[in-house]
Amino acid sequence: RETSLIALPCNWNPIFLTGMRPFVTLFILIPFLCSIAHAELRMPNVFGDMMVLQRDKPVRLWGWADPNRKVEASLGGQTLSATADDQGRWALELKPMSANAKGQALVVKSGNETLTYENVLIGEVWVCGGQSNMEWTLRSTRDADLEIQSADSPEIRFLRLPKVAKLKAQEDFPVKSPENPEGNWRQAIPEQVENCTGVGYYFAKRLNRALKVPVGLVDVSWGGTMAQHWCAKKTLREIKEVDPYFEKFETALNEWKKGGGKAGADKRYEADLKTYREARAKWEEKKEGRAPRGPNAKAYSDPAGKGQPGGMFNGMILPIAKLSIRGALFYQGENNSFTVGWKPFYRTFPSVVSDWRKAFGEKDLPFGIVQIAGWSNRRGMTYDMNHHCNVIREIQHLVWQKTTKTGLIATYDTNSNGSIHPGRKMPVGERSARWALATVYGFKTDGGRKELEWMGPVYESHQVEGGKMVIGFKEETRRGLRLDQDVEVGFYVAGDDQVFREARARVDGGKGTVIVWHDEIPKPVAVRYAFSNLPMGGLMNARELPAYPFRTDDWPITPHQSSGSYLVKEAFGKK
Question: Which residues contact 94 (CB under 8 A, 6 or more apart)?
Fold first, then answer.
């Protein structure tokens, strides 16, 4: 008779195997294994050397330790303690601290263990999210050749999170190594700054210069994502337009599981790779027709780690959501501008704002919305007037108008070609900073006597006078209304037939209005401005901030490669 023992960690069930006949099962208790098990003192990876903590607000610290063990944290002359709960989780709040550009040590102790984070600054912390235009690094921007080499702002710090999508809420994100550019805090200096989000860099640079305090950026951007990836799953289950995305994802996940998971996928990949190599070898002999394509390894990966409704919210937002921050910038919408991606956007995009605010525990968290730019080519008036981009920009505009403590940053003038990634990120970052300085920080100009201007002209009214349409703009946005170099492009007018034509336009500076007309449309009914997949237009104010795209009508928009029409009245009620 022979007995073998396998001892597993104490949170597992020990397994005792009995071999040889007769069979005997032994149940042996070995409590000493649990007594020597140790819950390591640790904090989530958002905390690290060279990080920036939020000034003038309670600073939340949290992590894990031995259950029921005391944890003590010290920073800036404060020392506070908490006791870990039965699961080993602990949290505490440091009292608000003033900005401090001198590096300090954050020290956390529990028993004989100590965590020390060096060179910690106190300043302004912003989360930068969205898809590729926010992810676009400084080294890829138009001004990289100057900015990288001249970057000299060690008090600007940034943390780029690794791309993580998960089925369930996560408490932390992984870090491969302390040297990896993802998951570790870096400084805005020539040796490190190239990997910083371009929009975020220019935003932080302006804030740093204006406020004279350190600035920290937490970058959670992921190219190719949709708005529904950044919302809570619970929220999305209540939005019927997201159901097809759940169904597609869940079907893929079930197929993955039925196919044997990773092991099955690896076998399929190797088989397909072998088939490709054989086909390629035959093609090389004659080189007739198209060369065969090899299998894409990404297509054989686990769907649970890819784009999915709520996946990025679970994997990238929730792990940092306890962090004390000032606000968020969000640059996303391009991937909702294809086929039917616009259909859930009127619900999912405002849900990004509300779900992030709920996650960070601040119902009025400042939220900067970066309106998408344009790309591709213009293909005709009908195509331009009905492009998906127009739907996305209008929804972004209306969410801004209907949601408190938000701002809208126009970008359609930053693209010099048809690329979906405009290289000019400096105006986007600086306009974002104008919004934040004006509305979040109350920054004044002219010795504190004037409000800081941050908005371009905002459409307010229209009326027909003498066969021409007179467009009015909100008073606080129309100062010095002008057309860039007096070029009248980007205006379109239609009559009762709802057929738009390129219009003439001139500015009435005395009244702060724009007069729009077409000689062959004696009774204009509607005007649109900067409506296109690649908008044109030079309407601006004295601060040379671009006018926001607008339309005076509420007619249906029927995007190409799509089904159904976008009806603003159904989405938002009366505009």
Answer: 58, 59, 61, 73, 75, 76, 78, 80
Give the integer Cα–Cα distance in Å for 152 and 173.
29
Q: DSSP label at 436?
A: I
Tokens encoding 552: 């005076």
> What is the reported pTM?
0.91
Q: How far apart are CA 513 and CA 292, in angstroms?
A: 59
In the DSSP assignment, the letter for residue 404 is T
Please state, in angstroms and rounded to a whole number, the distance separating the CA atoms of residues 420 and 437.
28
pLDDT tens, 466-524?
A: 999 999 999 999 999 999 999 999 999 999 999 999 999 999 989 999 999 999 999 99
Q: Which residue has the tokens 């709960």?
A: 85
Instruction: Convert the pLDDT of each residue in 366-401 to its tens digit.
Output: 999 999 999 988 889 999 999 999 999 999 999 999
Task: Give the span between the Cα atoms of 311 and 212, in whole angstroms.
Answer: 37
DSSP 292-322: PPPPPGGGGS-GGGSS-TTHHIIIIIGGGTT
DSSP 481-511: -EEGGG---SEEEE-TT--EEE-EEEEETTT
- Burial of 138 from C-beta contacts in 10 A (0-12 / 13-18 / 19+): buried
